[in-house]
Amino acid sequence: MIELGVNIDHVATIRQARCTYEPDPVWAAVEAHLGGADGITIHLREDRRHIQDADVEKLRELAQIKLNLEMAATDEMLAIACRIKPQMAMLVPEGRHEVTTEGGLDILAQEERLRAAVQRLADAGIVTSVFIDADPAQVEAAARIGARVCELHTGPYAHAFYHQGRDAESPAVVGELDKIRRAGETIRQLGMRFNAGHALNYFNVQPVARLAGIRELHIGHAIISRAVFVGLREAVREMKRLLREAQERSR
Q1: CATH number at residue 117
Q2: Which pLDDT tens digit goes with each residue over 171-197?
């Protein structure tokens, strides 16, 4: 059964807008869990624009479901991860100028450094994921550095879906989805776990959820946006229902 990891960064974004103590990301994690989330994702950025170190500490101690820590492969972040020991650490590219992560990690350009980072995390007992574009060469590089999970960047697919009028059968959308499908097949052939995420929402998620062998989807902004109107527990419940429906139709 496909799993849902809920990214709660933007709960912290709202809190940091006023530099106060609410809303609390830990409370958000509990609500997401009660709505059916299988995991919680947080991105501890170098500039600490939303999630703070104290949030990571509290969530590792109190979350009752898997904690996925997104992070740049820097010495600072590796040290934090090895101390906190989340169940999974996902290596992502990071730029202070970006609003959100804008592309996949270029493993080919830094294999030696990333191999050392993955080994350091593995020595601490942490499963390592890499966030990459749906490019077979990057998938193969991920296997070479020892990653156990590949999360494919679904942004290009999501943007095509939106710009093509939410027409899942348009050639542009089908083409982007096929890239994800083919990269996912390579991931599985190389013995890694096939996850996906970025810009997925209530309208575009089901074609991705129907892909063979996909294990986890990580979704944040769309769920937090829906939660403004229906509450976080219900927003997660609605997304889980869409994932279940998609997989039932694919059988």
Answers
A1: 3.20.20.70
A2: 999 999 999 999 999 999 999 999 999
d(CA 101, CA 151): 13
| Rounded Cα–Cα distance for residues 96 and 50 (Å) | 12
Does 7 belong to an annotated binding site? yes
Catalytic residues: 43, 70, 198
Q: For residue 79, give the 3-state DSSP assignment.
A: helix
Domain count, the chain: 1
Please name the helix (run of DSSP H) or strand (run of DSSP E) that holds residue 116, with its range, or none: helix 111-123
> 100 a known binding residue?
yes
User: Alpha-carbon distance 133 to 93, whole Å?
Assistant: 11
User: Is 50 marked within a binding site?
Assistant: yes
In this prediction the pTM is 0.94
Q: How far apart are the C-alpha atoms of 219 and 242, rounded to whole Å? A: 13
Peptide bond just before 93 cis, omega within 30 deg: no
Residue 178 to residue 181: CA distance in whole angstroms: 5
List of the chain residues with pLDDT < 50: none
| Domain ranges, residue 54 | 3-250
